[in-house]
Amino acid sequence: MDVDLIYVLDDRAGDASLHVKGELYKYLIKVRHHKVGDNVIFRNSTNIIVAHSYLLESIAPREAVFKLLKSAVQQMKPDRYFHIGWCVIDTKSVEKTLPMLNELGVSKISFIYCKRSQKNFKPDINRFTRILQSSSMQCGRTGIISIEIIDSLVEFIVKYPDCAVLDFCDNALPDKHDFKTILIGCEGGFTQDERDELSQQKCYRLSTKTVLRSETAVVSVAAKSLL
Questions:
Q1: Angle between helices 91-104 and 125-139 (to 10 degrees)
Q2: What CATH number does the domain located at 83-226 have?
């Protein structure tokens, strides 16, 4: 990818100079190996579409000083809106998958408690947000996936009546489609009662002979729909 898209989030971005210490210092100097003379893009979460270009002026043992060179609107967002309704699975699996979905350009995820969701899994929106922000800094996306939690499948269908469903059926998911929302089950899929509730929705399958984990199905659908 274009390295000029990679940026750092900092609430001080836009100031004439930045004195960077602590964890951000370690990240920029020890992990990304920036040197004096490098240009680094900073963005401020309050106006993230503006890219602030800084020159790394000096590096001390515990502090790096950056000088503002220019600021300009530089926005990178997905070309189309795509929303996934994802029945709740193990949050550790979700955390590993979120950066991939963010990079692919998913717009929104609704986490839904369906009948086979384990109720002890509680999506942590604050933690998910931090993971997504880190992902966006790495991939250059100006913004992150929007997240919501919905208590039941019925509530989701009422809120998004035009959603498609990924399940076992005869219709293969086409390379090009016009629906904006798709529902994907958790491990074990949907119960028969839930399939009855979803009987009026358009249903698609992925063209594979293997049984996919929920997170694999989610990434596959997002990639097929957005790339």
A1: 30
A2: 3.40.1280.10
